[in-house]
Amino acid sequence: MPNPSTSMYDAMSTQRAVRRLRTDPIPPEVLERILEAGTWAPSGGNTQPWRVVVVREGARKQRIAELYQAQWAQYAALYRRGLSRLSGEALAKQERTLAAGDYLAGHFGAAPVLLVYCFNPQLMAITDSDLDRPSVVGGGSVYPAIQNTLLACVSEGIGCTLTTLLCREEAAMKEILAIPQDWYTCAVVPLGYPVGKGHGPITRRTVAQQCYAESFGESLVV
Amino acid sequence: MPNPSTSMYDAMSTQRAVRRLRTDPIPPEVLERILEAGTWAPSGGNTQPWRVVVVREGARKQRIAELYQAQWAQYAALYRRGLSRLSGEALAKQERTLAAGDYLAGHFGAAPVLLVYCFNPQLMAITDSDLDRPSVVGGGSVYPAIQNTLLACVSEGIGCTLTTLLCREEAAMKEILAIPQDWYTCAVVPLGYPVGKGHGPITRRTVAQQCYAESFGESLVV
Predict the structure, then answer these.
(1) ipTM
(2) Integer Cα distance of B160 and B173 in angstroms
(3) Which domains does chain B have, with CATH numbers?
């Protein structure tokens, strides 16, 4: 049930990847709140170097869905091969995730809304661009905005999940959405009311597993 | 005032960069909640490819602060040169931000807690790593967790701001914090109760400015 006054900790602790979405439209006032939550996020130098294309037209969603399905098929095949060393509940859990991913890929264009996030690196100060490892800092000015929107979805009862597979089809995506040369894509988020229970219990590593004291690997006593 | 039940939209819409921090310690139960909020965030393949080193020891904070101050001095000098074309309120606003940045740099080691975020790219599927533009997708598995912690800070009345300047001193940071070879740094977040009003009104671009319909640049009518 939509509940815009959900406490923040409740929303965060129930943010699942919801991959089975109903086709019902999202009411305009709900979509507006979800999008506005994104605009509130901080960004380096407050440049807000992202834009989001809200895709609701059937034909356009379908073109994007076809690209997604092909990428998912490749990814899922690799993922399935990696499961051969698992068994029991661990295997069953991974298979449930894969089945939900298959469902999403098969129904990608049926989600009422696809949010396609774009960014412009010229508006970013990427402090790790010269290092000899993958750069991530540019993401620090776009993913907080996306996370705000995802949390807003949780609080509004809208299913959603952050996908990045379509970066592998960036040229085609830029053509479908008329994205200018100096803008690129960083995520596609399908939105819709959930088929099942939607957001709810999550499985995550604990504070003790993620957080250290004073130096890397040292147990934290808060 | 700490208020763990703050509505999510209230927290998001008042998330400022708070750069003037008191030296008072952060109560353990508050720190625990802030850190736990981060662990709840989604990540690609649920690998949670980040760790955070919680730095509270004075000498260690001081070494980090010295690196930050030097980087800030360089950055601020460039930033100040860029202000020559501004005047009036626009200039005054930028100068207030710079003054707050100067304050933060001068007091970096006096914040009761520095959160140093690390990531491991081997735990990430970076779908934009082969593109001919800066990669950001790795950030999609770390900055949502950091954003959760920052939002938790807002709701707890803790001042904070996401900094990435210290990526320019990654080798030194890795040595100070004993970060293993295959882990890297992506943000440092100083935490503390605010000297002034702390979180509050923000200046952001609107939904109309950030969101398009169907293709890039097309006005969105929600």
Answers:
(1) 0.96
(2) 20
(3) 8-210 (3.40.109.10)
CB contact under 8 A, B127 and A177: no
Which one-letter amino acid corresponds to residue A94? Q
Whether A120 and B134 have beta carbons less than 8 Å apart is answered as: no
Digit-coded pLDDT (tens) for A94-112: 999 999 999 999 999 999 9
What is the pTM (predicted TM-score) of this model? 0.97
Chain A interface, best mutation among B136, B141, B165, B219, by max A CB count within 10 A:
B136
pLDDT at A2: 46
Residue A215 DSSP label: S
Contacts of B150 in chain A (CB under 8 A): 42, 144
C-alpha pair distances (Å), B175 with each of A129, A207, B59, B78, B171: 20, 23, 14, 28, 6
Please report residues of A whose CB lies closer than 8 A to that of B4. Answer: 7, 9
The predicted-structure confidence for A13-61, as pLDDT tens digits, reads as follows 999 999 999 999 999 999 999 999 999 999 999 999 999 999 999 999 9
Please, what is the Cα angle at A39 between B31 and B125, to 5 degrees?
70
Q: What is the pLDDT of residue B2?
A: 47
